[in-house]
Amino acid sequence: MDRRYFLIGLTTAFTFCAAPILAITKAGAKKLVDSLVKDINKVIASGKSQKAMYSDFEKIFERYSDKSYISAYAMGVDGRRATSAQKRAFSKAFQSYIARKYGARFQEFIGGKLEVGSVKKVKSWYEVSTTAYLRNEAPFDVTFQVSDRAGKNLFFNMYIEGVNLLLTERTEVGALVDRNGGSIDGMISDLKKAS
Amino acid sequence: MVPRLSASRSFMTAFLVLTVSACTSIGSKTVSSNGIYDPYEKQNRQIHEFNRSIDKALVRPAALGYTSIVPDEIEDSVSNFSRNLSSPSIIVNSLLQGDLNGAGVGTFRFTMNSTIGFLGLFDPASIFFDIQEHDADFGETLYVWGVGEGAYLELPFLGPSNQRDTVGMLVDFFTNPLSYIGLDSPEKYFGAGSRVARGLSSRGRYSDAVDSILYESADSYSQARLMGTQNRRFELGDENANVEADPFALDTEGF
């Protein structure tokens, strides 16, 4: 009899332990992307100059993305041998590069719009699907991955029709390191010049 | 009478045989860092350089000219016409995949767009009925049948592909019923011509995006390989083949 109670107690304890402590909720992830998409649509519809749009997109990235994660991922294994000064310099150069590069991409959305769709839980984060509608194109999928890793809900990766933004950028950074004969400083200075 | 295409067909057949035999010889797994099997990287890179030079000298300028001179409405119509011509092939492949819904969508679109859409120049199926384009090709059929993607290949003029999709494309090319309808010139060139124009149209519209991959990235071959492969896997719903990273497992200290 005692043993049975003990087992029940043990099972209950394990169940509690196994239940992940998830602060991020489905509604929270959707809210972040709703707000992000609203801001992107606003910039697309604003009809501002290209330069003004870049700085708007830079602000959007600043506000909604998990910047330190994105930088760390993009640096990949080279991050292990980087000094803290190099890491800081890389983060700064990389964020501005991302805003320039993807700001330019979002320009193609002019006259189109993004619409938030379903939200799916994957391990400890959420995937929010959005659909992009562009002129005379079949609608296509843009997915944002959202986590609260940094203490608040932020997106940490983006997929356009299955193409993983982070993986693409890690490949690019890796190629820049190779081109500079393995030099991290050389890679950072190239990144500042890259569009 | 011997068809005039015979020379190019025998070349294609030889290519098909080569590709298929290459498919069967996959034994060792040398997967690149991003989960792509690329044993022919050296040859692929040469083709990539060729494609880049063709793009720079011919395709890019032609595409920019085409999209800037031709009004958007006409450009869209030409693309619609070309897409409509691939409908029979989409229907056949949907059936081969057991995708009755896809075959129905394809049939509806082909019927609507060929009639009230003036031979496919307009797309009333998506505008009035919200029946969007459904894509299917023989490469996808092979995937559904369980064939692996094989080695990565960059094809001359066509770009990123793999052994499975290359075989699929050749099969689609030779089995499209519309290519066997006896048309007099110049009508018989309408299909191919509109396909080329459709390609130019996308190259022109996404000019900055394509330029950033081909001319601004540090290693355009790797970028094209990664993007082409991931996008194709996504299209096929084969996303398990792509790697997922856990954001909580990465050390972000100092960034």
Can you lay out the helices and strands and say which pair or pack?
The complex is a heterodimer of chains A (195) and B (255).
Chain A: H1 2-18, H2 26-46, H3 50-64, H4 67-75, H5 84-106, E1 113-122, E2 125-133, E3 140-147, E4 154-160, E5 163-164, H6 165-179, H7 184-193
Helix pairs in contact in A: 2-3, 3-5, 4-5, 4-6, 5-7, 6-7
Chain B: H1 6-24, H2 41-69, H3 72-85, H4 87-96, H5 100-115, H6 124-128, H7 138-144, E1 152-155, E2 159-162, H8 163-175, H9 190-205, H10 207-214, H11 220-236
Antiparallel strand pairs in B: 1-2
Helix pairs in contact in B: 1-8, 2-9, 3-9, 4-5, 7-8
Q: Secondary-structure element order of chain A, as H and E?
A: HHHHHEEEEEHH
Strand order in the largest sheet of chain B: 1-2
Low-confidence segments of chain B, given as residue ranges, are: 1-28
The biggest beta sheet of chain B reads:
2 strands, antiparallel
Based on DSSP secondary structure assignment, what is the total number of beta strands of chain A?
Answer: 5
Intertermini distance of chain A:
72 Å
Mean pLDDT reading of chain A: 84
Q: How much strand content do the residues of chain B show?
A: under 5%
- In oligomeric terms, what are we looking at? heterodimer
Q: How helix-rich are the residues of chain A, as a percent range? A: 55-70%
Rg of chain B, alpha carbons: 20 Å
What's the end-to-end separation of chain B, in Å?
A: 71 Å
Radius of gyration of chain A: 21 Å
SS-based class of chain B = mainly alpha
Structural class of chain A: alpha+beta
How are the strands of the biggest sheet of chain A laid out side by side?
1-2-3-4-5
The biggest sheet of chain A amounts to: 5 strands, antiparallel
Strand content of chain A: 15-25%
For this entry, give a set of tags:
heterodimer, A: 195 residues, alpha+beta, five-stranded antiparallel beta sheet, 7 helices, 5 strands, globular, B: 255 residues, mainly alpha, two-stranded antiparallel ribbon, disordered N terminus
